[in-house]
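A reminder from the course coordinator: this example appears on the midterm review sheet, so study it carefully.

Given structure:
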């Protein structure tokens, strides 16, 4: 159920906005529309959407910059973002994921697939797990508040996307255990069949850039060569 969640659709092609809006409305979502990057930023701050569908090629402010601005704004920094990209723009997709987008879909796209991705990202946010016996954890400079969905580093709150938050919660629930990329996909992304193992690497790089003191020499999320990743042992 959509539960009247607001979704902001951002694209300078009005036909695409109307097409997406029509189908989202049929699914029970409330749709906000923007045709340039500046309006997208303003609507995000004033309307607090539950999710943003964001085209990369926009007038006034480019989509990647919109994503950057939103991720650095405390009041809305954790809103899920799905990027719309042209078919050959793999570099832009990787950059988008690295600066905080949760997912992407390429044009031309299937509306059914887009709706499925919207639901998958929202479900990912609603299913962020809490450990069974504790509501907080401390490891190194990190303070993790599971029930509040908040993470602090040296006392400063981190602005993590829903996917980054769920990824960190998953790792900290299973410290010291090695997981392959496919296992991480199963646990964090679930039945979202659109996500590829490479997306795991990109999100882990993004998460490391937020929580590690030295990105090149991580102390929390460790790479196990030839196997996958593990979170450091926790006290």
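Designed residues:
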């Amino acid at each position: 159920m959509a539960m009247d969640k607001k979704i902001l659709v951002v694209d300078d092609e009005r036909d695409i906005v109307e097409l997406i809006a029509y189908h989202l409305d049929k699914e029970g979502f409330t749709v906000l529309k923007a045709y340039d990057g500046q309006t997208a930023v303003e609507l995000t701050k004033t309307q607090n959407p539950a999710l943003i569908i964001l085209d990369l090629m926009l007038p006034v402010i480019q989509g990647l910059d919109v994503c950057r601005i939103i991720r650095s704004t405390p009041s809305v920094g954790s809103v899920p973002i799905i990027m719309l990209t042209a078919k050959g723009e793999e570099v832009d997709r990787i950059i988008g994921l690295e600066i905080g987008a949760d997912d992407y879909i390429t044009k031309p796209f299937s509306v059914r697939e887009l709706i499925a991705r919207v639901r998958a990202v929202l479900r990912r946010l609603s299913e962020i797990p809490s450990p069974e016996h504790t509501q907080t954890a401390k490891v190194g400079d990190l303070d993790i508040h599971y029930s509040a969905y908040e993470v602090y580093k040296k006392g400063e709150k981190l602005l993590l996307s829903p996917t980054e938050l769920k990824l960190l919660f998953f790792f900290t629930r299973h410290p010291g255990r090695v997981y392959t990329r496919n296992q991480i996909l199963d646990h964090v992304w679930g039945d979202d069949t659109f996500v590829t193992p490479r997306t795991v690497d990109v999100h882990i790089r993004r998460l490391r850039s937020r929580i590690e003191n030295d990105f090149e020499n991580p102390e929390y999320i460790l790479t196990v060569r030839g196997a996958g990743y593990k979170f450091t042992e926790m006290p």
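The chain has a mean pLDDT of 87. The first helix runs from residue 14 to 26.
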